[in-house]
Amino acid sequence: MEYHECSQEINRNSDGTRGLDDGQSQEDATEHKGFVQALKLILYLIIFGALAGKFLTGSYLWEYEGKWIRLRTYFPPPQRLFTESELARYDGTDPDKPVYLAIDGDVYDVTKGKAYQQGGPYHILTGVDAARAFGTGCFKTHRTHDLRGLSDVEMKGINHWKKFYENHKNYFQVGKVSHPPIDPSSPIIEGCDTKNKKQSGAKKDTEERRALVQDKDIHQEF
Ligand code: HEM
């Protein structure tokens, strides 16, 4: 009598069709059961985590409000390349257009942010790549992408705001802005909190912002 050790041997079924032997189908069934059980366990853990979040923080998502819960993260709008003058048209002065701002080349739709509307404390940042102002706080004199001469702390400030826009649940990237090259021999822009303090009106800006806005949490990290 001949023995076949291969578990995948194909036999004749009672109806004459060919199929895998019983051992193989049992193995498949066990594997399938294990997989379903693992899925169930993950589902229970998710439900338990969500309920615990609701109980402890009042939110099923543990107060998470980042980009991963917004549909646009998974279905991003088509990205566009802006010139500086094209970008300037999206500064909120035309009520039929969305409000855009750029930071270090990346253009974001910030229409949902009240602070950017006309008369708002950060309207000055719209329609332009004012990356430098994000690092220095000189909103009037540093409305430029020119980052030459900035300190590490100021660069850190810019990176903080880049991440802020990248991860914000209400803002989303719509493209990039192309800038003409900066002439390396042109003078580095002066700070506004030393010589230019009067001219920039930085102190006045701060006071206006303090009066106009309420939530200060977003500045905590820098
Ligand atoms: C380097 C200096 C600063 C930079 C670059 C900066 C930039 C910003 C930006 C980009 C926002 C985001 C607005 C949004 O999308 O929700 C914001 C919000 C805000 N800023 Fe500043 N800021 C600076 C300094 C200050 C100071 C000195 C104050 C207070 C005296 C202040 C008060 C606020 C408040 C309260 C908000 C919340 C606005 C809102 O939710 O409507 N900021 N800031």
UniProtKB/TrEMBL annotation:
Highest taxon listed in the record's lineage: Eukaryota
Q: Which UniProt keywords are listed?
A: Membrane, Transmembrane, Transmembrane helix
Q: Kindly list the residue ranges recorded as spanning the membrane.
A: 41-62
Q: Where is the composition biased (Basic and acidic residues)?
A: 192-222
The record's section on SMART domains has: Cyt-b5
Claim: Lipoprotein is one of the keywords in the record: no
Give the CC-aspect GO terms.
endomembrane system; membrane
Asked if the keyword Transmembrane helix belongs to this entry, the reply reads yes
List the Pfam families: Cyt-b5
InterPro entries assigned to the protein according to its UniProt record, in alphabetical order: Cyt_B5-like_heme/steroid-bd, Cyt_B5-like_heme/steroid_sf, MAPR/NEUFC/NENF-like
Q: Where is this region: Disordered?
A: 1-26, 183-222
The Cytochrome b5 heme-binding domain covers: 82-178
Q: Which family does it belong to?
A: Belongs to the cytochrome b5 family. MAPR subfamily.
Q: What protein name is recorded for this chain?
A: Cytochrome b5-like heme/steroid binding domain-containing protein
Q: State the organism of origin.
A: Lentinula aciculospora
